[in-house]
Specification:
The protein is α+β, with helices and mostly antiparallel strands. It contains 24 helices and 19 strands. It folds into 4 domains: 2-168 and 615-626, Porin chaperone SurA, peptide-binding domain (Triger factor/SurA peptide-binding fold), CATH 1.10.4030; 188-224 and 478-578, Chitinase A, domain 3 (Roll); 226-247 and 387-474, Chitinase A, domain 3; 268-357, Chitinase A, domain 3 (Roll).
């Protein structure tokens, strides 16, 4: 996320200027919460400090950038849920560490370099693009800084940038390394896998005696608990609740249409038929058979055993297609067959079956759509205004129900729900709102308290009040009896599954073949074709440990018994290795860039980790947390 923000600013002087501009505003649109005489320290980094005021200014800058990049979608609540405050503080600590190290090494930025950075900054240039001393002085006055202070801040930022840039690889990773990585990443293997699951032994009942029940309960009694249940009231309001009350004037709609004409230009779209085949010979054979383009779908469908609809991409715009195909399709002639062309997916043939020319949509065509969009935007803004009203009502002593009624929000009451969203009988609460943050909010809010407003899916705002807490308690042996019996039987089923898997391996060691044992024991075999080390092709069958083992085998070798999860085990045999000989240059470029970036970032993290151990870092967590209460 911070990388995306950094990419939005082109030069270091721009970054410094934006930082200082942000510093002139208070957090969350209210007055500065610290007086000139009171600016408590949040963090001590060696002899450096981070004050509350300094942190807030930086945090506001980050929030401002995020909101600009997301069209204002990042609210204070969302920022906290994304942990932006902690990320900002960690970033500032890292910067202080670099400042200390540079100071200890007596590294500085030459005045000439500072001068050049200022002269090149667009914030200090006139309309002709020339540095303007008066503009420079005026800007510093607006920021409440003198030239010395500004140069100090700029020097630190330039110095940090130089230190970090040491760890960005200027030369590409050697092509040999990229090619090896490419081949490992794209190598495919064919595997036969068997799953030995406890579910296959459910019908086998263990003789569960009273003695066994008692012994099991004594050993695992802490596992048998009634879960904590909570009863709560939830208030929620979303844009749909108020959108019908919003009226849009004709003048507003027309102004929106006139101001953003580029939004109402309909791009050219083309209906594309495309087929990928395994070899050039097969593709050429199909190409030769298509003497009439009307036969494309019928013949291609018979070649690939796919439905004709799977070969019709429909009407697509140029941006809907991969770059390597887009230009070709939009330069292609209508009803002309192209190919065979080699791609990472095989050999393709394609044709453009129909073309819809682009055109500018008329006002009458988009009027209703614009009105709907304006209503939605206004409704979203009003939702947050209503959220402030809700807060004001709560602050004045209103109950959650009264505060909800004041903004016409919905109210629901739920009783005895546990962390899994089920009731005390274990049944799912079907009408529970589908907000991802709901249960966490319910189980982190204190009894009789009202939670903060939470911004959830669809710009919904909700808050909860906890009405009752039934705390978790241990079950006695009578209450646990049914669960104990199930657990004993499940444990026996798992033991039998693991025993069967190990017996399978033992018999192979005795000379039996994999295939004969499969047939003899009527085992279900998964034929996994073209699996890769990243797990593609083996989803749901092989886990990470099994994949690593499979990619260390030679052909016809067999893995040991590998646990898949708590209730099943796998055994796999390697049948075929498909090494990569041909390399797609475009993919190699992406891999090289990824390796470069990852190595650079790893080196930077190592540097910060080493230096962090060198300097004492003290964080006043209570003070830091109080800023967000």
């Amino acid at each position: 996320m911070f990388d995306n923000i950094r990419n939005k600013t082109k030069s270091i002087t721009t970054k410094i200027f934006l930082l200082l501009i942000a510093a002139s505003f208070a957090l969350w649109g209210v007055g500065d919460i610290f007086s000139n005489k009171s600016d408590p320290i949040i963090v001590y980094v060696g002899e450096e400090q981070i004050s509350s005021r300094e942190f807030i200014k930086n945090y506001q800058r980050v929030l401002s950038d995020l909101r600009q990049n997301t069209n204002g979608q990042i609210t204070d609540e969302i920022a906290l849920s994304l942990n932006i405050h902690n990320q900002t503080l960690n970033q500032m600590i890292n910067e202080k560490i670099i400042d200390l190290e540079a100071k200890n090494m007596n590294i500085s930025i030459p005045k000439e370099t500072l001068k050049k950075s200022i002269i090149r900054s667009p914030f200090f240039q006139d309309q002709l693009g020339q540095f303007n001393q008066e503009q420079f002085q005026y800007t510093l006055r607006q920021l409440g800084m003198d030239e010395k202070e500004y140069l100090e801040q700029l020097s630190k930022a330039l110095l940090r940038e130089q230190v970090y840039n040491i760890f960005y690889l200027k030369n590409k990773v050697p092509s040999l390394i990229s090619e090896i990585y490419y081949k490992i990443k794209n190598e495919e293997r064919n595997v036969k896998a068997i799953s030995f699951s406890a579910n296959n032994y459910i019908g086998i009942k263990k003789n569960v005696t009273e003695e066994l029940i008692n012994r099991h309960f004594e050993e695992f009694k802490n596992d048998y608990l009634f879960p904590e249940n909570r009863s709560f009231t939830i208030m929620s309001i979303k844009p749909d609740d108020i959108i019908d009350s919003i009226t849009i004037e004709e003048e507003q709609i027309k102004r929106e249409y006139d101001y953003y004409p580029e939004k109402y230009i309909q791009s050219e779209t083309r209906q594309v038929f495309l087929v990928n085949l395994g070899s050039r010979e097969e593709a050429q054979d199909l190409f030769n058979k298509i003497t009439d383009t009307n036969q494309f779908l019928e013949l291609a469908s018979s070649f690939t055993q796919k439905e004709p609809g799977d070969l019709d991409l429909g009407f697509v715009a140029i941006n809907d297609l991969p770059e390597s195909l887009a230009q070709k399709v939009f330069n292609a002639k209508l009803l002309t067959l192209y190919g065979p062309e080699e791609t990472p997916f095989g050999w393709r043939l394609y044709l453009v079956n129909n073309i819809k020319e682009g055109n500018e949509l008329q006002y009458s065509d988009v009027k209703d759509k614009i009105a709907e969009e304006l209503k939605i935007n206004i409704a979203i803004d009003k939702i947050y205004d209503l959220g402030n009203t809700f807060y004001d009502e709560i602050a004045s002593g209103a109950s959650i129900t009264e505060a909800a009624e004041s903004i016409n929000a919905g109210i629901k009451i739920f009783n005895k729900i546990n962390k899994n969203g089920t009731n005390f009988e274990g049944n799912i609460i079907e009408n529970l709102p589908p907000y991802p943050e709901l249960l966490e909010t319910v189980f982190t809010t204190n009894l009789d308290e009202i939670s903060n407003l939470i911004s959830s899916i669809g710009n919904t705002l909700f808050a909860v009040q906890i009405n009752q807490i039934d705390y978790s308690r241990q079950k006695n042996i009578t209450e646990s009896r049914e669960d104990i019996i199930k657990d004993i039987e499940t444990a026996e089923n798992i033991r039998l599954a693991e025993y069967a898997a190990n017996e399978f391996i033992d018999r192979i060691k005795e000379g039996k073949s994999f295939e004969s044992l499969v047939k003899e024991n009527n085992l279900l075999v998964f034929d996994l074709k073209n699996i890769k080390l990243d797990g593609s092709g083996a989803e749901g069958i092989l886990n990470r440990k099994a994949l690593d083992k499979v990619f260390s085998l030679d052909i016809n070798e067999i893995t040991e018994v590998i646990p898949y999860d708590e209730k099943s085990f796998t055994v796999s045999k390697l049948l075929e290795i498909k090494k990569i000989n041909d390399i797609v240059e475009e993919d190699l470029i992406v891999i090289n860039e990824t390796l470069n970036k990852n190595i650079s970032e790893d080196l930077r993290r190592i540097l910060i980790t080493i230096l962090s151990n060198k300097y004492e870092i003290k964080i006043n967590n209570n003070l830091f947390d109080s800023l967000f209460m």
